[in-house]
Amino acid sequence: MKKIEVVRGEYYDSVTLMLVAKEIKRINGVVDAVLNMATEANIDIMKAAGFEIKAGFLSPDDLLIGIDYRKDEIDKIFETARSYLASPPWKKKEDDTEYTPGTLEGALAVLRDANLALISLPGRFAAAEAMKALKNGLNVMLYSDNVATEDEIKLKHYADRNDLIVMGPDCGTAVINGKGLGFSNVCPEGPVGIVAASGTGLQEVMVQLSRRGIGVKHGIGTGGRDVKECVGGISFLKGIRELSDDPEISLIIAVGKPPDPEVKERILNSLKKTGKDCVICFMGDDCGKDEDRVHYSAELEECAVVAEAILNGKEVSAARDKLRAEYASLSGWRPIEEVQGKYVRGLFTGGTLCYEAQYIAQSYINPIYSNAPLRKEFKLENSLKPIGHSFIDYGEDEFTQGRLHPMIDPSFRAEQLKEQSEDNSVAVVLFDVVLGYGSAENPSQEVAEAIGAVKREIKPVYVAYVCGTAGDPQDLAKQISLLEDAGVIVCESNARAALLASSLISRRER
Amino acid sequence: MSFKDLLNSGPKVINLGMERFYLDLLEQEVPAVKVNWRPPLAKSSLMDRLRKLRGEEVE
């Protein structure tokens, strides 16, 4: 039976709601539990799940608790849900003694020398709070998506006039003075400064640098739209200027999906003016040949390889050749003799990892369909019904409305992985697991369980990449062995995983 | 505090939104305060609409 309870005027963040739902699902007799703020999108999702909701009486500030149950103890279950919301069972007791201000101004009275507001509120409220923060002299990291372009421009112009920065909207990752904000990996501090219009792009470069013993001082996120002509690269260019002035930074890396041409020109000119070694990775975008101290790379791992060569005084071309030779040998590797099915399905939690994988795999398999394709004509009509070779980014807005980002809650991606694995036309399933602060506690476990539950005589080949460092809270070695025990081939970079997965079913040599 | 100050002195953060991010900051020993944020009352949007009807500017 399904029943809904409305709690009026109570706001909770999406992680709290997910955690309470998980606790409730553990109660005997509960089939499912869904807790959502009553936005239009969430109401639609809950209606689709079979809950009866009279939308006309609700506002987005109301909380919906939907419970599907077997036993007739529903009142007790709702009571438990409310008590968990009031006092979450996973919280330490000492947390309750803290004073928690209700406004930004109140928080400023507590932390007088605050210099950054980290905002992950629903998009419709985020811009107003960001402007309030700027007016109080704070820099802003805006994790929220669904912020209007005109609001982004207004915020960034205001910040620029007042010597502040707005990282975002849709900025998931940043590192300031070695401290991670949002989704970030535990990496050593070092002489590298990164500006990135891409969250998982920044994470992958930091992880690959860290695995080569290179540390990062600052990783400045800008949000993907910053490098579009409409915004003009305001934060990206500001980031380059500051990294240029920092005497501790000897190498600057610029990362992102390809910027709009005029913005790219401005970024390249600005990098050239720094007089420092620079490595640019705009993922497949042809920026030209290396010149003087400016180097280009098409892939994220290559970007780290080139940076390491420069910093350690090695020949860049030799380092590149070595990487290419390793890629060539990987593309000829056949770890499994017989592969059943024809298609590769890439199931990603990281948007830039999905993009990079398509860029690399297109040399081996074509066409690749996606909800975030390299070319518009390969856009999937229905992201829940992939066709042919399809690479899906489960962090796209269409999946995160009413759901947590898959790096925080990997359960939906795990369900999709099981479903795709049971499609007889699928030969290879490629996926990412992203570790670090902000990410799920045990993401490989969910995937391993999904693989274990697959009902198909001969399962597809599983190829994965775990983006993480040995210092990350999830324990990198444990996450890799959970996957390997489930029969997954785990590669050392996102590029390598994409290369192996696509070359497995293509005999074409690079 | 300018962007340069932020980079020079390291982050001191006011967190609005997901508590998870705030707890991760504390774990890294980053000075941080969380705001127990609540959406503006629904009535404000009604007030905004009334003000707009009266021709007043709404922020």
Q: What does the largest sheet of chain B look like? A: 2 strands, parallel
pLDDT < 50 stretches of chain A: none
Q: Count of DSSP E strands of chain B?
A: 2
Order of helices and strands of chain B: HEHEH
Report helical residue fraction of chain B.
40-55%
Q: Kindly name the structural category of chain A.
A: alpha/beta
| End-to-end separation of chain B | 25 Å
Which consecutive residue ranges of chain B, at least 5 long each, have pLDDT under 50? none
Please give the alpha-carbon distance between the first and last residues of chain A: 56 Å
Sheet with the most strands: spatial strand order of chain A? 15-16-14-17-18-19
Number of strands of chain A: 19
- The rough form of chain B would be described as flat
Q: Tally the helices of chain A.
A: 17
Query: Which strand order does the major sheet of chain B show?
Result: 1-2
Number of helices of chain B: 3
What percent strand of chain B? 5-15%
Output the radius of gyration of chain B.
18 Å
Largest interface: A-B, 58 and 38 residues
Question: Helix coverage percent of residues of chain A?
Answer: 25-40%
The fraction of residues in strands of chain A falls at 15-25%
Q: How do you describe this structure in short?
A:
The complex is a heterodimer of chains A (510) and B (59). Helix content of chain A is 37%, strand content 19%. Chain A is of the alpha/beta class and 510 residues long.
